[in-house]
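USER: Write out one fold?

ASSISTANT:
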Amino acid sequence: MPEPSTPLQPRPTGAGVFIVRNPQSGRDVIRRDPSEVIAERLPDARVHELLDDEALADVVADALAGDHPPAVLGVLGGDGSVSRMAHQARRHGLPLLVLPGGTFNHFARSIGVDTVDAAIDALVAGEGMPVTAAEVSTGAGEPVTVLNAVSVGTYPQVIAEREDRMDRMGKWLGGVAATWRALRDAVPVVIAQEGRRAKVWSVFVSVGRNAPDRVAMMQRQTVHDPLLDVRIHHARGSRLRAVASLAFGRRTIAILRAVGLMPPDSDVERLVVREFTVAVRTPDGAPSVYVHDGELEEQAPAGYRLHCVVVPDAVRVYAPTSAQT
């Protein structure tokens, strides 16, 4: 992929900016429709609403093949949409504009972009920086760009169950039901890493060093740290602890730790590396899946080999100057 080197340019009217909006992102979250903000502040930007039968890569390819190819790729959506657009930005050597439009917006928050207006402010001023990412692969195909974290085990099992229920219950209620189901049915997975085998509830791989008290690392803590922070939760405790360990809010973690529901430090192994490879085998009947940036990836039932490698300065992102520390 091309190396990001060209300085970011101010785009005061949005000229040269191509924004893809994912209307499915954050649909359970009540918020003001940002379309009016984008139209008012970036009148020269092109906005494309992603249809159910469209692939983001195809939409970007069509835009780049047109008479006026974009100079900036923007995305209005959640973490999954942002990571997929970041992959396209890396592939084509273009900067990325992140317009938060999902439920959690983990990556947007990590770069100091809490609102659509904040993202547009950075674009208008030409503020931003290259950020570290990771590449994840499970076979001979093209590696996937990851901005926040990768996970195997209990969390992907919960996400898989939530996906099955979303059409009937919505994302939030589906998530509650999936978590309740995990309290009864979550199963450990077997991993093999550097000649060792272990039964674990989960493995999380964060881009950059993360908070030491967390098992579930959903949101990165730094934007430049060229390392992977790995947390392996060994299956020595109950399902209740396995599900409790998925908490990522600081206050929630503190409460769960105070009442003894978080796993003890002795159950959680931590590695800080530049590259991480693990073979994963799921029990019969359990979904063979992993998750990156909230995106569920199905794998062969017999198991798979997950390879993660850190990529410094992977993609240029518009962001406020305050986030560049």
Notes: The chain has eight helices and 15 strands. Confidence is low (pLDDT under 50) at residues 172-178. The radius of gyration is 20 Å.
